[in-house]
Design goal:
Length: about 200
């Protein structure tokens, strides 16, 4: 029996890149496997070899975003570093991620589909969680165990800290505002750190 040749990874990447562009410009409903294949400069048959339908293609893009989040937001607690230093590192990672144009495009794509709550939007909602907020939860829990911070809920404090960063750095971009410059980003970071230290410091 003849073995199937592995699908060309470069073509798969081209299809995903084209799909991101098409979904961003035309929306999920306005895009088609035909227009995506033309954008990727491959045959429609090649697109279907990699993705059985447009829904699966969109979910693959959603998984790219989730993978990026998981890779970027790792916050191991370090007893040898000050709380201020570690909070700064957390905030800086958030800002760097949310300042990346490609990440913003992916977030916008996923957000629009979720808001529409169509068939694919509901599937995304089922698999969506509060990674941006919750991936710092363990860090806050460890800081509390180390007797450096005191609060009732690490989940609440994580949302509070990350939410302040996002409210200045991320949400305005969704409405067309310009990115903050480095000086403005630094002000947001130190304000967020001061809030945590004032409210929960020991």
């Amino acid at each position: 029996m003849r073995k199937k040749r592995p699908l060309n990874e470069e073509k798969r990447k081209s299809i995903l890149k084209a799909a991101i562009q098409q979904f961003y410009e035309k929306g999920f409903e306005g895009s088609s496997m035909d227009t995506i294949s033309k954008e990727a400069n491959v045959s429609k048959a090649t697109v279907y070899k990699h993705f059985k339908n447009k829904e699966e293609l969109f979910l693959s893009i959603f998984n790219i975003l989730k993978q990026r989040v998981n890779e970027c937001f790792q916050y191991p607690y370090n007893k040898d570093k000050s709380i201020d230093e570690q909070l700064y590192d957390i905030a800086r990672k958030e800002i760097d991620f949310l300042s990346d144009e490609q990440n913003i495009i992916l977030i916008e794509l996923v957000t629009v589909v979720m808001i529409q709550k169509n068939k694919i939007g509901l599937k995304v909602l089922e698999n969506m969680n509060d990674d941006f907020y919750l991936m710092a939860v363990q860090w806050f829990e460890d800081a509390k165990k180390d007797n450096k911070l005191n609060f009732d809920s690490s989940c609440f404090v994580s949302r509070q800290f990350i939410g302040l960063i996002k409210s200045f750095v991320f949400f305005p971009q969704l409405y067309g505002s310009n990115k903050l410059n480095n000086q403005e980003n630094e002000k947001v970071i130190f304000t967020a750190i001061k809030m945590i230290k004032t409210m929960y410091g020991k």
